[in-house]
Amino acid sequence: MLAAESESPHKSGGGRLSCCLVYPNRYHSAMSNLGFQAVYAMMNAHPGVVCDRAFLPDREELDELERTRGTLLSLETQRPLSSFDLIAFSVSFESDYLNLPAIFRLSGLESFAGSRSPLQPLVLAGGAALFLNPEPVAPFLDLVCIGEAEPILTPLLELLKEGAESRQELLLKAAALPGLYVPSLYEPRYEGDRLVAMNPRPGAPPRVARVWDPDVDARPSVTEIHTDATEFSGMHLVELSRGCPRACRFCAAGFIYLPYRGRSLDLVRREVMKGVEQGRKVGLVAAAVSDYPGIGDLCGEIVAAGGKFSVSSFRIDHLDGGMIEALKASGQKTVALAPEGGSQRLRDLVRKGIDEEQILAACDMLISHDILNLKLYFIIGLPTETQEDLEELVALVSRIRERVLAAARANKRLGEIQLSVNPFIPKPFTPFQWCGMEPVKSLEKKWKFLQKALGRVSNVKLQMESPREAYRQALLSRGDRRLARLLVTADRVGSWKEAVREEGLDTDLFVNRDIPLDELLPWDFIDGGDAGRLEREYRRAFRGE
Predict the structure, then answer these.
(1) In this predicted model, what pLDDT tens digit does every residue of 393-415 receive, in sequence order?
(2) Residue 367 CB neighbours (<10 A)
(3) Whose CB among 6, 344, 521, 540 lies 3.0–4.6 Å from 226's, allowing a Cys bridge?
(4) Do 134 and 255 share a structural domain?
């Protein structure tokens, strides 16, 4: 059973467009996702539309459905998903692609759109993973939102309410709307292992433009439904801005949400104070929280009003003393910083824009405010990384540790460094999209070096994302439509390794290969803005600029 929710915007009624918004993961993950909550609220606020929710069942419920051959039902009205007019997936992470075939199977629907009856629901998908690269799951989908939901949903819902003579006519009309991609209207062509063309059918635009919300003050992105069954239980999340102004060369957030847009301080303050009045801790959400103008004063206002707040991470070169004091007053004992590269050479390569002196100064500022628990994010396996770069990472962590220990001894309490190490994963629409991921065995060797150097050091905790999981994420990030069959086979046989063997795919070609700059990429049909900028930044990176 799910924990009780506060009042939701769900309404019911006859003669409306019935939608089911599906998050292809568990309930607690979905209800921590602002994008999912925002789309749910927007759909239910639209005249003539009623929207339920559905989620990947938890392990126990999933086993029961499999055993009894039961049907996945929506949360609000307990209807089978196959009875809705529209099934809409909200997909933030490529790893959730793995769950789509299971949800189709549990709903009594064919995974592949071309095999479904015209009487069955249309299937739509959106979310950050989809407007990076929808191709691994494109054969499952009738419609894909390329960009942010706010400018796309209203015209799409109006079109679906209006209807058409046939599903094909409806999809052709949808393809003419900004930000909507209709996979069935495009035919990929391969030569050997390479994708060489993506041919639009009559009526489809040659490229699909990514769309973005030009007025982020028109509608706040906040927690719409509060529930205890989430990792952010008791918290009111408020989005401060869209995108990131920094444009680090490995990071998709700095490119796919361009242009960077901050919400007005007045709007943010109103939403923040709603959370304080409800007695909830406020979660400030942004790719770069400390870049938000007036953040220190805002945090001080929250504390002065008797509230508490939390943030995800800070920019090392933009810490605000007022914000740190307010964090301390809020009871936050750990602050996350992201040097990313272990050496200065790698930080310059990824265009991080910080040096060791700034990193140490940021740590000193936090320590001086009696915040002695630091979480540090590093990436290993970045292009051109060497053993010397890893040794510099170890030396940097050791210098930070010395500072934490000195302050901890003076204050007669413990301090700790949590080291989060993640393999580099090449992402579409970044300057490093052409770079291959380092092989798993090489990453495992580097991980063993870090374990030997830091794993037994007191006051340092070391954790790393599995290189094999990172490999699979890279495959789904860079893959094309040929992966759809692999996803279905993996669901059927219950083993990823066996599915790869059965399908006969050379997955290393997608993951580990450096892609020539003149080769067609699976996501090249998306017009994401200044494509030349990515190539310029790629060339500048490897020229050491």
Answers:
(1) 999 999 999 999 998 888 777 88
(2) 20
(3) 6
(4) no
